[in-house]
Amino acid sequence: MDDTTPYIPPKVWQWVEESESRFASINRPVAGSTHDKELPVGKHPLQLYSLATPNGVKVTMLLEELLAIGRQDAEYDAWLINIGEGDQFGSGFVDINPNSKIPAMVDHSTTPPTRIFESAAIMLYLAEKYKAFVPMDGQERAECLSWLFWQIGSAPYLGGGFGHFYAYAPQKWEYPINRYTMEIKRQLDVLDRNLASRRYLCGDEYNIADMAVYSWYGQLVLTGLYDAKEFLDVASYTNMVRWATEIHERPAVKRGRRVNRASKSGLAERHDASDLDALEQRQ
User: Which of 53, 95, 105, 234 is most solvent-facing, going by the fewest CB within 10 Å?
Assistant: First the structure.
C-alpha cells in the first residue's frame, strides 16, 4: 500500500511490530515494564528522572529558578532517562510513572517518599512546596493554572501532531501537515494576542505558566524546534518573540536547558550546582 491507496480500517485493529521506524523500539500498545532496572538515588531529597525534551526542560528550568532565588533546599539530582533506548520501560521508572513518560520525580523529604509524574503536576508540586512562581490564591492563581493547563492541552498538537508529520514521519503527507500547521499557527496567535498587552502570560509576574509554555512554544519561535521557523513564519508573532527572548536569556533558564542533555553543551546527569558551574566555565 502506498500513500495514494485509501486506507480502510479493519474491524479490529491489530498491532504489527515495526523494525525500521525510528520509534519502533518505544512505540507499543500496552503499558508496564519490559525489563528489570532499579533507578539510582542520589544525595538530595529531590530525585528527577528525565531527558532534555521540552517536557523535561520545563522542570529543570523551575528547579534552577528556585535555586536562583535562594531556595537551596531545592537542590536535586537529575538522572538521564534515554527514551530512545527504552529506559522509561524499566521496572524502577514504571514504579514512579506507570505511564512511562518523562519527566518523573521522587521527593524523599516525605515519609513515605512522594512520587510525582506528568510535567505540569511536578511543576505545580514544586511551586506550591516552595511557595514560589505560582500565585497561591485568587484570580492570579486561576489565570496561572489556566495557562499552565492550556500548554498541557495544546502541546500534543505541536509535538505528536505537527512535529511528527512535519519532521519525523517516513513520508510527507499534505493533509496532516496542513491540518496541524493550521492549529499550531492558531495557537501561536492565541499566545501572541495575549502577550500584546502583557509582559508575561499572566501579567507582570513570571511564573510556572511561562516556563511551561516557553519550553514548547518559546523554543519553537527561537531555536527552530522541528526546523520549522520559516515554514511557520514564526517571526511574524512579534509579541511571542519578545516574550520568549526575555525568558530564553534568564540565567536559570540557560542552566535548566542543559540538564539531562547528553551533548557537549549539556550534562547527561546533574548532581549539584557545581556541575553546571564547571560546565559553564569550560564553555
Answer: 95
Q: Is the dihedral of CA 161, 164, 166, 171 positive or negative?
A: negative
What CATH number is given for 1-133 in this structure?
Answer: 3.40.30.10
Map out the domains of the chain as residue ranges. Answer: 1-133, 138-249
Q: Is the dihedral of CA 21, 233, 260, 150 positive or negative?
A: negative
Distance from the first to the final alpha carbon of the chain: 50
Domain 138-249 annotated CATH 1.20.1050.10: yes
Closest CA to 72 of 64, 62, 84: 64
Q: What is the pTM of this model?
A: 0.95
pLDDT in tens, 29-81: 999 999 999 999 999 999 999 999 999 999 999 999 999 999 999 999 999 99
Q: How many CA atoms lie within 13 A of 66 on its CB side?
A: 26
